[in-house]
Design goal:
about 0% strand; single chain; transmembrane helix; about 60% helix; mainly alpha; ammonium channel activity; two-stranded antiparallel sheet; ammonia transport; Ammonium transporter fold; globular; NH4_transpt_AmtB-like_dom; about 300 residues
């Protein structure tokens, strides 16, 4: 009997063969998997990370209010994001600092290859592209989710400025309004193809869009809301230090996705970002604790037993 001839050589990896509709030719499974994991790590920074941290770092009477401020902000941002805010941040240009509002829920939109920015910007000759479009090797659904968790944590960081100060009903109104009229402006201007994007302003991982905006907004909100009541200003101890550390730990580990996902691919940039991001906090803690060693020795809970 004649030996069976081997199948013809197929240069396409086995995982991508078969022509399944869920595996288009442009999809890179590694990039897609990492981007979804990175996004979920950032989501875990907020829920349960900052929910736990906020709920435990305040006085006991403010614990539930503070935790729910973070939880509500995350949930509300997700709804607003897919309903109108994503396209205001990354959609077609409406103004130099704002995109056109619209839902990011249609299957046709979500299964297409991701692309940023949506608006092409040309030089004065109207032919030469000023800033090239980014087309990661995964679907828009992944990009929408990744950008969603960044928007959510921005609001939750802002909430830290008004813990123990703000009525929860007022916070419920504040979240969608600030997301719509503040966050989307910064996101579109810097990341979504707005005027700062085309001026060459770079924001690798949210220094402007997330941290600067939430910091300034938090300071401003705290000013207008006003100080805590006198009793809370005089004494405001955390109600559970161990849970504060647990929340901080989730925040720390989640940073691997925060910075590691920003190259929009599983590549050497993401590897370096994860290593540098994860190794920075212990170095800072080490030197900080070293400089405070004399003070720490005076704390009874840290003294070595002499018995």
């Amino acid at each position: 009997a004649m030996a069976a001839s081997p199948p013809p050589y197929n240069p396409v990896p086995v995982a991508y063969q078969g022509g399944a509709g869920a595996v288009p030719v442009w999809l890179n499974k590694g990039d897609n998997a990492w981007q979804m994991v990175a996004a979920t790590l950032v989501g875990l920074q907020s829920v349960p990370g900052l929910v736990i941290l906020y709920g435990s770092i305040v006085k006991k009477k403010w614990a539930v209010n503070s935790a729910f401020m973070a939880l509500y902000a995350f949930a509300a941002v997700v709804i607003c994001w897919v309903s109108w805010a994503y396209k205001m941040s990354f959609g077609d240009k409406l103004l130099p600092f704002w995109g056109k509002a619209g839902p990011a829920l249609g299957q046709k939109f979500l299964i297409n290859q991701a692309a940023l920015p949506a608006s092409t910007h040309y030089f004065s000759d109207h032919k030469t592209v000023e800033t090239a479009e980014i087309t990661p090797w995964y679907p828009m659904a992944t990009m929408v989710w990744f950008q969603c968790v960044f928007a959510a944590i921005t609001l939750i960081l802002l909430a830290g400025s008004v813990l123990g100060r703000m009525n929860f009903k007022a916070w419920m109104m504040f979240v969608p309004l600030w997301l719509t009229f503040s966050y989307t402006v910064g996101a579109f201007s810097l990341w979504g193809g707005g005027f700062l994007f085309h001026w060459g302003v770079m924001d690798y991982s949210g220094g402007y869009v997330i941290h600067l905006s939430s910091g300034i907004a938090g300071f401003t909100t705290a000013y207008w809301v006003g100080p805590r009541v006198k009793k809370d200003r005089e004494r405001f101890p955390p109600n559970n230090v161990l849970l504060v550390l647990a929340g901080a730990g989730l925040l720390w580990m989640g940073w691997a996705g925060f910075n590691g996902g920003d190259p929009y691919a599983a590549n050497t940039d993401s590897s370096m970002a994860v290593l540098n991001t994860t190794s920075a906090p212990p170095r800072a803690s080490w030197f900080g604790l070293g400089s405070m060693s004399s003070s720490l020795r005076s704390l009874p809970s840290l003294e070595l037993s002499k018995e």
